[in-house]
């Protein structure tokens, strides 16, 4: 049965598709002090902490807005006066952390590496040795603009060795790629209500070490982004300081239940891996080449080179896919002519298989029969 183009499936790096059952939760208007709403909020917070096995030591603080708001709240709340942040960037989201520091006036240093390769521990270590003033390191776990998975464990080990605090932009990994606070010490991990958690977009979350947050009173120069203040308010009242995004939070609680029902992060990662495998195999069979070496690629999104073929146009591919009920995404990097197809969200391997059939049809429409076979991308 062909897909209904009026209900397109998002094969994008975000927002991602959400299950019908999660969206249906939003049909009810809930008052803010309502017991059911308070229970949803409490459950969602506890569930997020349980994903990282952080029971007792961590708390989950919601920040209305997209995940960038929560990244900004983490930097503004946890990096104190006199602190300095070492940022790593190999893509759009690393660069956004730099923009946040610029806007907040937070002192920072940048380790920049090539877009399609992760950094090495030695590169971080050289920066730390050269600049002892650095107090915190912030890394993007999974750089969604390319799909590159950055080496979180190595950076966390360095933080331990040099007594630095670790902040993680886990927006594209949290809920799928393993993050365990028992083996990897971090002060904060940021996630989105959407992405791998598959709630509707609208709330960012910071999973924060209680001891780091307790010491952060008065750091934040913003009222709305102050995680310390939101946390102490939740401890007193169980709720948000200002009008809560009730629909988003209750839908998020449902998304958490569905995450648990699926089998938690390992099962979700396994499904995304199946999606990614089907996608990359299907695209390679049609002659498309991936940009990121497979060894560094995360299964949340894949970046493809736009083929040189004179008949090919991304706009035509996008439009043809949209007519068939699939939304794909342009590349984010100016330096390469690329496009992206996402594997996150309420998407199954069978959906990817259908998308590959649709893509083959669109290629035929463009008059492209064969791009030639492409082998796996090497390092
Ligand atoms: C989606 C995403 C963000 C947040 O971007 P928004 O535009 O605020 O949704 C931050 N970091 C990463 C790695 C992301 O994938």
TrEMBL record:
Q: Which InterPro entries match?
A: Aminotrans_V_dom (IPR000192), NH2EtPonate_pyrv_transaminase (IPR012703), PyrdxlP-dep_Trfase (IPR015424), PyrdxlP-dep_Trfase_major (IPR015421), PyrdxlP-dep_Trfase_small (IPR015422), SP_NH2Trfase/AEP_transaminase (IPR024169)
Keywords for this entry?
Aminotransferase, Pyridoxal phosphate, Pyruvate, Transferase
Pfam families, sorted: Aminotran_5 (PF00266)
This protein's assembly is summarised as: Homodimer.
Question: Where in the sequence is N6-(pyridoxal phosphate)lysine found?
Answer: 195
NCBIfam families, A to Z: PhnW-AepZ, PRK13479.1, transamin_PhnW
Aminotransferase class V domain residues are 44-303
Identify this protein by name.
Answer: 2-aminoethylphosphonate--pyruvate transaminase
Q: Which cofactor does it need?
A: pyridoxal 5'-phosphate
For the protein in the UniProt heading, the enzyme class is transferase
Task: Give the record's family classification.
Answer: Belongs to the class-V pyridoxal-phosphate-dependent aminotransferase family. PhnW subfamily.
Catalytic activity entry: (2-aminoethyl)phosphonate + pyruvate = phosphonoacetaldehyde + L-alanine
Q: Which molecular function GO terms apply here?
A: 2-aminoethylphosphonate-pyruvate transaminase activity
- Tell me the superkingdom of the source: Bacteria
**Native source species:** Roseomonas elaeocarpi
Q: Has UniProt tagged this entry with the keyword Glycosyltransferase?
A: no
Question: Which EC numbers characterise this protein's activity in its record?
Answer: 2.6.1.37
Provide the function of this protein.
Answer: Involved in phosphonate degradation.
């Amino acid at each position: 049965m062909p897909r209904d183009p009026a209900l397109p499936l998002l094969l994008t790096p975000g927002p991602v598709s959400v299950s019908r059952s999660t969206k249906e939760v939003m049909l009810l208007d809930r008052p803010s002090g309502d017991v059911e709403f308070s229970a949803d909020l409490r459950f969602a917070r506890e569930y997020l902490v349980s994903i990282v096995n952080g029971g007792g030591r961590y708390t989950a603080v919601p920040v209305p807005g997209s995940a960038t708001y929560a990244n900004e709240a983490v930097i503004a709340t946890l990096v104190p006066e006199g602190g300095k942040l070492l940022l790593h960037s190999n893509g759009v989201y690393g660069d956004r952390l730099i923009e946040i520091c610029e806007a907040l006036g937070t002192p920072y240093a940048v380790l920049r590496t090539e877009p399609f390769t992760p950094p090495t521990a030695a590169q971080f270590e050289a920066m730390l040795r050269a600049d002892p003033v650095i107090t915190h390191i912030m890394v993007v776990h999974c750089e969604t603009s390319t799909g590159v998975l950055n080496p979180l464990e190595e950076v966390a080990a360095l933080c331990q060795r040099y007594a630095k605090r670790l902040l993680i932009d886990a927006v594209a990994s949290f809920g799928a790629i393993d993050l365990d606070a028992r083996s990897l010490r971090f002060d904060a991990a940021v996630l989105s209500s959407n992405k791998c958690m598959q709630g509707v977009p609208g709330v960012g979350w910071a999973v924060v070490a209680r001891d780091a947050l307790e010491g952060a009173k008065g750091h934040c120069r913003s009222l709305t982004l102050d995680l310390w203040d939101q946390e102490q308010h939740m401890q007193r009242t169980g709720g948000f300081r200002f009008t809560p995004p009730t629909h988003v939070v209750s839908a998020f609680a449902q998304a958490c239940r569905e995450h648990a029902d699926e089998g938690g992060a390992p099962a979700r990662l396994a499904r995304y891996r199946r999606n990614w495998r089907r996608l990359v195999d299907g695209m390679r069979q049609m002659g498309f080449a991936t940009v990121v070496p497979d060894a560094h690629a995360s299964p949340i999104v894949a970046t493809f080179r736009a083929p040189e073929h004179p008949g090919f146009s991304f706009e035509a591919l996008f439009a043809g896919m949209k007519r068939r009920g699939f939304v794909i995404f342009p590349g984010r990097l100016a330096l390469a002519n690329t496009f992206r197809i996402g594997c996150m969200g309420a998407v199954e391997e069978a959906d990817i298989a259908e998308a590959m059939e649709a893509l083959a049809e669109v290629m035929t429409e463009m008059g492209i029969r064969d791009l030639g076979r492409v082998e796996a991308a090497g390092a």
